[in-house]
Amino acid sequence: MRLMPWLHCLLGVVGRELLRFLHQRSRFIAALVRPLVWLFVFATGFRMALGVAMTEPYQTYILYEVYIVPGLVGMIQLFNGMQSSLSMVYDREMGSMRVLLVSPFPRWYLLICKLLASTLVSVVQVYVFLAIAWWYGIQAPPMGYLWILPALLLTGFMVGALGLLLSSFIRQLENFAGVMNFVIFPMFFLSSALYPLWRIREGSYLVYQIAALNPFTQAVEMIRFALYERANLEAILISTAVTLVLLALAILGYNPSRGMMARKGGGGD
Amino acid sequence: MSDASVQAESAPPEQMAPALAVRDLEFSYAGKRVLESVSLAIEAGEFAVLLGPNGAGKTTLFSLITRLHDRRRGEIRIGGYDVRRQAVQAHARIGVVFQQPTLDLDLSVAQNLAYHGALHGMGPREARRQAELQLERVGLSDQHRTRVRRLSGGQRRRVEIARGLMHSPRLLLLDEPTVGLDIASRRELVEHAHRLCAEEGVAVLWATHLIDEARPGDRVLVLHRGRLLADERAEALADRLGVANLGDAFDLLTGGLTGGEEAPCA
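Predict the joint structure of the above. Result:
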């Protein structure tokens, strides 16, 4: 098969997502304000209560707001991934999903295009956030900002695929709040985003175990190490594996003869 | 499931093959029959009205043709290509106007059409050329840069038709395309679709529950409770049932009198 049409398709899907992103300024601002509030308010308050001793990958004793930045990067991607995948289910987006799926390209390819598109949007958000953090005084080594790019792509795919999977199997989600309560919050809070694992362990062994098993922890650690020009091999491997599994399940979920489409019966009459 | 489609593997699809051929289509959902032994064929340049009350299975039929889902029995071919085994070729030959609006309101008409072109593997230049061509045909050339949000309901529908035709499909499916439109826009849309058939040779399958959208001479397919109860010209149908017009024929078939039980299947 010729290659160009595939490329046109990919660029078309990505281009549309970016255009939509530019038009939805309120969504962009919300996506930025959320982590910034955490950074400026939450982290400032906690700085007094909670110092973070030297842990990998940090070379020195660090302030709490330095610790929390990679976690907030993960949070941006988590929200974005869930939002763009799940928006396909409700608020009239079901229609645009149909437009996508009646394209002659194979479904797995269309879904990957879609995931890449939403991931790139989240990458843009992350870099704007990091720029503000830099201005605020939280500065990683310059090359670290390049290093995190692959980590961001992988994380974006992971959370996006999770969202797709949810959107294919959960029949009705009244609104975003349900996903917030049952997916986003647990994933975020039960991870190393806010506190290092060893500190969680001091508090509760059970929570520590859950957090250690949480794939989002691996994603955050991968980003954290990358930002300081280090490769956390274990985190990368686990994140990759989890992403591949989620992606396969999501593609299966959108298979025309099973999963969502079969069960939803096309809706309407 | 049923990989038991009987047809020998693809006779080389030609211009001779009907634009749409459905054979013995069965579909159940949650243990309920939604479609029951539906067979139909639509030739190039033919305008067929799929008439049925709400809940008759029209949208389900469309979802199966476009392969949004396909846990079904039977065979569907587009221009000779099996939608399951030759999905790429079959999909490339279908244009769809969905029941619910599917344009991005915040993007311009041109951006919406460019997206569709890309989804069909067109390069930006070709997509632009096709978009201009089709927009001219629906009389919206001057709205190229307009945001969809600022268009009227009728104009949006016409943009969706233009979009559905960009990749020169052999079959155009329209699922209740006039929902929410005023009478004038409705009439205009029906006429436009007829013109397409005549001028382009596109086969059109137009689903509706509004009887007055079928015009004299149109082929009428009556779908009721998942079964195809009639498949003939509007007048012929009325004649056969011994009633004055299509409206009465429709009432008769869909349970105005009996439950449609003994109605002759086409």
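The interface with chain B takes residues 4-6, 8-9, 11-13, 15-16, 19-20, 23-24, 92, 94-96, 98-106, 110, 256-258, 261-262, 264-269 of chain A (CB under 8 Å).
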